[in-house]
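Question (not urgent): is this output format expected?
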Amino acid sequence: MVNFRIFFILFLRLGTIVLQKAVKKQEKARSLFFHKLMQIISLICLIIGFVVIYYNKSIKGSTHYKTYHAKIGLIAFIVYIIQLITGLALTFFPSLLGGISKSKKYYKHHRLTGYINLSLIWLSAITSTRANWVTKHFNQHWIWTFSIGLIIIGVIGRINFNKIKICNIKCNFSSFVNFTQYIPIYSQKNQTNQTNR
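Got this back:
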């Protein structure tokens, strides 16, 4: 049960990170493929985790959606599904949005909504640590506060405001936390660049 939530967040985040550093056309194509693959895997994990938790609460006769974790998680789940449908439309059915050139105008909204939903997903994960069972067995408030701070730094640190193009901010925090070195697509590219120097 917990593993599916962890894998969901892991694959979702990997699918998001890979798009941040893509600049060249070939990189963008590979990154988009990797993004789609990670989103499909994370969707499978999300659905399995949701079904298992819902079924578990049903057989125990527990009330659904009474905690902040459950409410935020449900909102994040709905936004994720909408985000997934939008991403599919942008990628595979751009004619629904007026063609490829017009559909590209919606990328910034898809990206911004993705960042907002990523924050909701992390918030849902963090609020799960305040569940009765967790606080009964492990009641350390400093870890909860510290993890929220790290998540905020991690999410904001990866946002490339220039790609969102909604506000006119010229700073790019993407180099603050560089996780792309751990992704095979980028580690190969960086090794090639360093040997060429």
